[in-house]
Amino acid sequence: MPTPRHALITGGSRGIGLAIAQLFASQGYRLTLLARNNRNLEDALSTLPTSHLSSSSPHRYIATHAITNDKFWTTSGLDDTFGAQYEFEDAKEKNIDVLVNCAGISQSSSFVRTKGEDIKEIVDINLTAAMLATRFLLSKRYIKGRSFKAAETEEPFSPTIINVASLLGMKGGVGAVAYAASKAGMIGFTRALAAEIGRSGIRVNTIVPGYVSTDMTTDLERSSDLRSSIPMGRFGKPEEIADAALFLARNQYAHNCILNLDGGLSAT
Fold this sequence. Notes:
This protein is 38% helix and 12% strand. The protein has 268 residues and is an alpha/beta fold. It has a seven-stranded parallel sheet with strand order 3-2-1-4-5-6-7, with helices on both faces.
């Protein structure tokens, strides 16, 4: 049997990241999930389907310890100790076929009332950590530029980096200036990196969700005015964003895609 492909998902313990993990797991992917909270990470693993697990393949799903130190989540940078924290079972796990940069925190405060340290934290977690982690994984060749057949029966497959941005990074929004700036940065990061490394056989894409039903948007979803401003009349579901991630992983011509999933809100 061909070796299952390996997806590394940051922010994979809840919300959109968890929905992506669940869908990829159902498709037979090996998973590495990164999160800042061990309990959330353990809870996330318990939701993954186990139909593919067997005594001969006990490590189909892999969870790291929560990454809580500055090496990953802040701008102090990454070094060789980051790789050691993965605790991969063998060398095969170091080949990452799909990287999903989904870790993020939200904001709800006017710009002038947002503390400087809060602005830094939002940008660090939402943007800088994604850039540093991606740079680390590329430089250490965890993500290798290639397009190959894992088995004779398989189609050629090139690895992909999928960044999760936000409609606020394109449209703007009240009370979310730092958040919007960080998500706009993710779109710029995608476009520039796609131009720089595309010829190496590595694809880079972005999903741009609108308002999605997660624990981060519970209060917002109660607003009938906000829901009515969305042409589809509702918030999106995490599973609908996960569908887009799987499409971008599978479609070998998907490169430099900026994929809106906002229920039509960007058209208003």
